[in-house]
Write a structure and sequence with these properties.
156 residues, mainly alpha, three-stranded mixed beta sheet, 5 helices
């Protein structure tokens, strides 16, 4: 299939790319509008950043959100650094979340995409109200438990 071409010489990969673009354009015209977000930056895989850029309008003039692995206390899965617009993930769980693979700057795209969706709005606020603070504590607790389970399974 990868070598298949139509009468005009277009490859199947080109056909799929065109179909995806037509789908995105049609959805944009359908009237469904998404709220602009602070864009994803360093630490997110290029393909993931591209998809997020295609799917979500960017807030103009906003510095992108970065994500990276850092040494954090054992009872913390993630941390937010508002000054540098960075989501820090606990390096202790990196290998387990990467399925044992060696880490790179753009590794763990699924985890990083989910963290972006959970936390991107926090960077747009100057103040965390009681609901946001409760959500952050909830996410910290649940994600820490899940990361520990991944870690334990990887060691078994």
């Amino acid at each position: 299939m990868e070598r298949a071409v139509d009468d005009d010489g277009h490859t199947f990969a080109e056909f799929l790319a065109d179909a995806q673009q037509i789908y995105r354009d049609a959805r944009r015209r359908s009237g469904a509008t998404r709220k602009p977000v602070i864009p994803a930056g360093r630490g997110f895989a290029p393909a993931l950043r591209e998809t997020l850029d295609d799917e979500l309008p960017a807030l103009p003039g906003e510095e992108p959100i970065a994500i990276e692995w850092r040494k954090l206390p054992d009872d913390v899965f993630f941390d937010i650094d508002r000054d540098t617009r960075t989501i820090a993930l606990n390096r202790r769980y990196r290998t387990a979340l990467n399925g044992g693979r060696r880490g790179t700057v753009d590794d763990a795209p699924m985890v990083k995409a989910l963290m972006f969706f959970l936390l991107h709005e926090v960077f747009g606020k100057e103040y965390n109200g009681p609901r946001t603070k409760d959500n952050l504590q909830l996410w910290q607790s649940v994600l820490l438990s899940a990361a520990r389970a991944e870690f334990d399974q990887a060691e078994a």
